[in-house]
Amino acid sequence: MIRIRVAEETVGRYYPEQEMRTPTHFSIGQEAISVGVCQALEQTDAAFSGHRCHAEYLAKGGSLLGMFAELYGRVDGCCKGRGGSVHLNDPSVGMIASSAILGEMIAAGVGAAWAFKMDGSDRVAVTFFGDGVTEEGIMHESLNFASVMNVPVLFVCANNGLSTNTPLSVRQPRGHQIWKWAAGYNIASEHVDGSDVFAVHKAALRAVAHLRAGKGPYFIEAPYYRTRVHVGYETDEMKNYLFRSKETVEAGKALDPVLKATRKMIADGICTQAEVDEWTAAMVREVEDVVVQAKASPFPTVDQLLVGAY
Amino acid sequence: MRTLKYNQAISEATVQCMKNDPNVFVAGIGVKDPGGIFGTTEEANELFPDRVFDIPNCENAFAGITIGAAAVGKRPLIVHPRNDFMFLSTDMLINLAAKWKYMYQNGTSVPVVTRAVVGRGWGQGATHSQSTHALFAHFPGLYVATPAFPSDIKGLMVTALTGDVPVVILESRAVYGLEDEVPEEPVAIPFGKGRIIREGTDVTIVGASLMAYEALRAAAILSEQHGISAEVIDPRSIRPLDEEIILKSIAKTRHLVVADTSWATYGFAAEVAAVASEKGFADLQAPVRRVTLPDSPAPVSKPLEDAFHPTPMSIAQACLGVLRQEVQVTSHVRDVQEAFAGPY
Predict the structure, then answer these.
(1) What order do you get walking across the sheet with A95-98 strand by strand?
(2) pLDDT in tens, A18-41
(3) CB-closest option in B91, B92, B106 to A89
(4) Does the beta carbon of B301 lie under 8 angstroms from any beta carbon of chain A?
(5) pLDDT in tens, B50-95
(6) Does B254 touch chain A (CB under 8 A)?
(7) A78 touching B, CB under 8 A?
(8) Largest alpha-carbon pair distance within chain A?
(9) Closest Cα of chain B to A110: distance in Å?
(10) Is the pLDDT reported for residue A243 higher than 90?
(11) Pairwise CA distance, residues A264 & A267, whole Å
């Protein structure tokens, strides 16, 4: 989690230089969900994500240089500069794909899981998405298909209550609970605090055991607080609380999953604040090195424009 | 060589590809029905019941589901009994499948193969007789084939199911009864290679899908009634398009008519006309003419429907027009779907 947090904050720090020219949706605040779930997976399991994919890409094992060089549009990027922030992927670690179009990767995740089932493999697939996607028709189609075909797919809804800036209250019926709605498809479903990495991880372990036992799909809804604006590095404070009230923002800050996790670990005697500071400092050094490498990586030459087109 | 009907050729290609590669599977609404999508999936279901999947109604998600399966090594063959339903799949095919190989740059591809039937006649109407080929061919990243003959669909399916490119194959329902010689072995036919299906010297007719067959019948009228020698080219795949075969032909005949099962505006016929204009203008002795659907949705009522679709007569008339022969085509050939007794 510290690795992802430091990486994202570093992106935020360099973003205003106008050298990372790709619309970036920061995962800050979401780390507990990505890490809690991916830690329950094997590398051979498949993961899919949406536009806010940095945390999942890193949690699944994607390389830091692959991500930073991609944001800088360089040849060492995971997509060699073709994909940008919203299309991070690294199949070698099971991060199959991410996509900016809502819902695509829900279906793709179901498809990968279906393929695993056809092969009699014990591999599973997980697809990460936000609350906004649950309003798309493809969500219904995918839940229905996954349930009917009994495929080993884990749906993870990271619910930040906002679709760009539009709140749930104007998008979904009053009192609507996403995880209960998913349960209506005869899919095992639960709600877990998305700011608590330990709780998410326990839920994910339950889910993965369920999938590997051939019991069909599983759905986790995990609410969390999105610390930044929809796209770009700015905070609400920097935007003069244009989209959310100061009170909401202050309450959200209390849900910081990295702080919550480290406080708990310190309280439980698992580590000390000094160790946390040391891990953070080591990550800062590592990420700064990666930034230097990414900036040193060449741009693709123009004669590469049509390579891979057909 | 033995002969097969169009649907038999599809079935044979499917079964042979499934035998050769255990990752090939067939899925779509009704593919396990008795009769199996006009006889195209029945044998596959008999031989490989565990690899033929009837599915819920979910054209949008399902295109993505097959892309996800392909991303982890499967070779899905998706079947739509009517291609009009593929509008629901466009996001997945255009925004995801078509872009995968170029955009993700990780050595993976998603070779999903989508077969879909284009309806015609017996009142199929506005939403069951369109052809979506130009739509899918517009976007880089998909191969689009419109084979009209049994040997061609078999060979193109073999290429599609062994290649690494997502493919859309559109099949006119009206050619399902056509029969010709088909190799027994799974012989691949490359995409981007057209075929001269009749040699001629006076005018070139390029026809996609059913219109390749109708152009052959038009050429017979022109030859028998008007002493005109028409060369007929079936592009077989419209993306990639074999421009060379078309340009070579117009260098010989100096006249071009393009016949299509869809509308003129921004369509396949417009593309061929543009290729001729950009790269073969000096060879042309007359403007290109397009024979396409009138600019309306398809009607159901028989007299209106009969007037709606291009025919061998209207293609022949267009050829006479580009050759500046002021004569009316009076001969009549039977409608290609005349024996079709419906309903679907």
Answers:
(1) A95-98, A46-49, A125-130, A153-159, A218-223, A188-191
(2) 999 999 999 999 999 999 999 999
(3) B106
(4) no
(5) 999 999 999 999 999 999 999 999 999 999 999 999 999 999 999 9
(6) no
(7) yes
(8) 58
(9) 6
(10) no
(11) 5
Which residues, at least 6 apart from A157, have a Cβ–Cβ distance to it below 8 Å? Answer: A129, A130, A131, A133, A134, A178, A179, A182, A219, A220, A221, A222
Q: Could you tell me which chain B residue has the CA closest to the CA of A309?
A: B102
Tokens 């009749």 sit on residue: B198
Per-residue pLDDT tens over the stretch A267-294 = 999 999 999 999 999 999 999 999 999 9
Nearest chain A residue to B68 by CA: give it.
A108
Residues A137, B60: C-beta atoms closer than 8 Å:
yes
Rounded to whole angstroms, the maximal C-alpha distance in chain B is 61
B128 is catalytic: yes
Structure tokens, B76: 């899905």
ipTM of the predicted structure? 0.96
CB A241 within 8 A of CB A212: no
